[in-house]
Amino acid sequence: MAEWAAVVGIGQTRYKTRRSDVSIAGLLREAVDRALADAGVGFDDIDAVVIGKAPDMFEGVIMPESYLADALGASGKPMLRVHTAGSVGGSTAIVAASHVQSGTFKRVLTVTYEKQSESNAMWALSTPQPFSVHLNAGAGGYFAPIIREYIRRANAPEGVGIRVAVKDRRHGARNPLAHLQLPDITEQEVRDSMMLWDPLRFLEACPSSDGACAMVIAAADSISGNKPPAWIRGVAMRSEPTMYAGRDEVSPQAGRDCATDVYAQAGITDPRRDFDCAEVYVPFSWYEPMWLENLGFASPGEGWKLTLDGATSLDDGGDIPWNCSGGVLSSNPIGASGMIRFAEAARQVRGDAGAHQVENARLALGHAYGGGAQFFSMWVVGADKN
Amino acid sequence: MSTARPDVTGIEAPVYLHYHFTAGTAPARFLVRLREGLLSGQRCPRCAKVYIPARGSCPACGVPTTEEVLLPDRGTVQSFTIVHIPIPGNPIEPPYVVANIVLDGANISFIHLLSDCVNEAVRIGQRVEAVWRPPEEWDYAMDNIRHFRPLDEPDVPVERIGTLPVSGPAVPR
Amino acid sequence: MRDIAVVAFSQSACVADIGAVNEVELIMPQLQAVYAQVGLSSAQDVDFVCSGSCDYLQGAAFAFVAGVDALGAVPPLKESHVEMDAAWALYEAVLKIRTGHADSALLYGFGKSSPGELPAVLSQRLDPYYLAPLWLDTVSLAALQARMLLDSGSITESDMAAVVSRSRQNAQANPLAQLAGDIGVAALLQDDYLLAPLRRGDCAPVSDGAAAMIIATVEQARRWGVPYARLTGIDQRIESHNPCMRDLTDSVSTRQAAAAAGVHEAALDVAEIYAPFSHQEIILTRALGLDEAIAVNPSGGVLAGNLMMASGLARVGEVFQRIVNGDARRGVAHATSGPCLQHNLVAVLEGA
Ligand SMILES: [Zn+2]
């Protein structure tokens, strides 16, 4: 019943710790102008604007779509602001796609961003509340115990996280937009980096980045630009509570259900075989093997074996490269990180991923998660409609 | 302008907003009990799971919770991390252990410090008990428990963590 | 496009300070009420859930995450959130149903503004480089707008007081209203200015609370066998942020949204307008092209009670209730967002 929609334009900023050369609006415009140019369209060709970012408290600007409407050429158009925690970049892309898939609009501009350097995100995430102890151990402190439980359950060897940390940074070195440029990183360097939240070391965690990512999504009769479109073959979102009795925090049901849903839409029966590559939200190294299992690329307890075998590495010629762009481990403008996964999946099937292109990629997965690994959004994009 | 000045690339615009935060009816009862040195949870009327601290609903069933369950201050380590970075404004010296602890009789863990232990010997399934501050320091806060410390008891098998019955009386220390 | 119906609505009473109640405790009663209207047992019985809220109202990041605890999201739900009034959550859900990925949706909005000082909080919604550092609050901005209208000669202070008087009168029949009473124009004009030319009565109160709604395809509504109102049109438009860049005495984006939603394709008999200030109701009535015969804000509108982040959805709910009660056949609902009516949503509802 849904109308066909495709990604016809992608624009990203260079990701770095501080983009003091641009305002928030300027940062978004950098990505948006590139996406519009990529699609070969101008603001007049855009029917609606969908914007997403993580909590307003990260920059201290409340409901920023108000202030950003002018810079995004939204005046006189519908505008929507999505916020689903860390998965927001992916959810925003899905909501933007629904503008077209619903048959309501022909061409939609969507953009997500974070400019953490303009405020104190650590503060925003840790306003003290009396019913919990104020430990302020950060996101790593929250996820490290879950990773420890994965390691116990999967009986995984100690070096898997280190392997992912090196692999994604080497991928990132192929991507000129990536925040971290560490082409010569070694496993020893990661091992020697400071232990922050045991078992997570400094180099096994994502950086904090400023950046924005934008896309133009168009209906089948409104395809534009010089590059092939990336057809949206499936979209899915799932949410579950942060905590509930019996919750599987290592492999959340919301993630499994979301994958099942999006695979069914796209006709995926064996993700490792059917996909050519995947861009998956891995902010801490160990989440690669965990998500390999959660997303059905490996059986429970077997995900780390794919990582160690090099199956997910472009450099090792792996059969299912993950995060060829460098992933969240190489660039993390939080509100945009999910959309970057979705956009990088689209770049692969458009054959437009530059030095991190997977040869002849036809079908790719984009994935994002947020909150306490409780909010999931995923899409499948293809070079063909089926 | 006669003197050249550097370009302005940013301004400082501090934001101060004052809030009178309230925790909610269910968390307020939890905090009042804490002030008395007691750990109070709530049982879901539909699935019978016990939540602490309760927020007023069973998140799994989406129904209000009202039945109070007082829990003992001993529990089991569900998982943990050894943190090597300091907490701003907290005198604790890294490395220290932050653990997800499930109290006996509860079906959900909360995060707290685990101390008086050899960090390297901490393990999933380990038995622990609360170390309270002196009663005269008690406030409406989880900090009334200074930390948890290991108990000399056999470990709980992993599959039984989060399913143990109430192990003893809930009495103020 | 698929025909969509509103099938259930509930909102909490508007109160200035609801006290020690958290997000979950705020939302859950409204969810239970809309489930009961349709005969559903939980959010598991709908295909999609979408909410609207703003972290800064209560001063806690991720307030909407706590809200998920009210849903019973096990097994996991198809769920989304807008950091906007829940009227925009309705908009997202309508698109979702039109894609065919859902046949029904639960919507809710909630806000607890009492912990903070709302006008000051919302000043941080302005351009962070040029306007927010001035701490230009929402009431002052609205006062500037009212001054422009008065000076243009298109309204008088008596016109503004008449809006307030009618709101208070209408609210006497609304048990959920915060401000109601029999007060005339002359009495209102005797009040001192709060921020000239605005008197306290010209400004919506700030209320804590929540609202919830269920929508579905018309086919699904019929299967459920509940009374419903068809949502025949919905559109929303934003305009320039800078108050100096647009004509504050008009609402161009409301005109655009009204035209796209098909407001004037047939006669109307009720309108619920989200006008947080009395003069804005006049601007919006004109922009929507409403004539004297149409009952405007029979609930009293937000001048009688303003559930931040839910008031827009509640306008749609009010029109829905009047249609299923047989008091109206066709109505328009309006929601606004941003300083001086920057962003507006218009929905049209009709009897089955
Ligand atoms: Zn339950």
Structure description:
The complex is a heterotrimer of chains A (about 375), B (about 170) and C (about 350). Chain A is of the alpha/beta class and about 375 residues long. Chain A has a domain at about 5-120 and about 210-220: Thiolase/Chalcone synthase (Peroxisomal Thiolase, Chain A, domain 1). Helix content of chain A is about 35%, strand content about 20%. In chain A, the strands form two sheets. Chain A has a nine-stranded mixed sheet. In chain A, strands 5-6 form a two-stranded antiparallel ribbon. In chain A, helix 3 (about 90-100) crosses helix 13 and helix 10 (about 285-295) packs across helix 11 (about 305-310). The mean pLDDT of chain A is about 95. Chain B is mostly beta strands. Chain B folds into two domains: about 20-70, no CATH class; about 70-165, OB fold (Dihydrolipoamide Acetyltransferase, E2P) (Beta Barrel), CATH 2.40.50. Chain B contains one helix and ten strands. Chain B has one helix at about 25-35; strands at about 40-45, 50, 55-60, 65, 65-70, 75-85, 95-105, 110-115, 125-130, 145-150. A five-stranded antiparallel sheet of chain B has the order 8-7-6-9-10, with no helix packed on it. Chain B has a three-stranded antiparallel sheet with strand order 2-1-5, with helices on one face. In chain B, strands 3-4 form a two-stranded antiparallel ribbon. The radius of gyration of chain B is 21 Å and the shape is globular. The relative contact order of chain B is 0.18. With about 350 residues, chain C is of the alpha/beta class. Chain C folds into two domains: about 5-115 and about 205-230, Thiolase/Chalcone synthase (Peroxisomal Thiolase, Chain A, domain 1), CATH 3.40.47.10; about 135-200 and about 230-350, 3-Layer(aba) Sandwich (Peroxisomal Thiolase, Chain A, domain 1). Chain C has a ten-stranded mixed sheet, with helices on both faces. Chain C has a two-stranded antiparallel ribbon with strand order 5-6. The radius of gyration of chain C is 19 Å and the shape is globular. Chains in contact: A-B, A-C, B-C. Strand 5 of chain A pairs antiparallel with strand 6 (about 75-85) of chain B, so a sheet runs across the interface. Zinc ion binds near residues 47, 58, 60 and 61 of chain B.
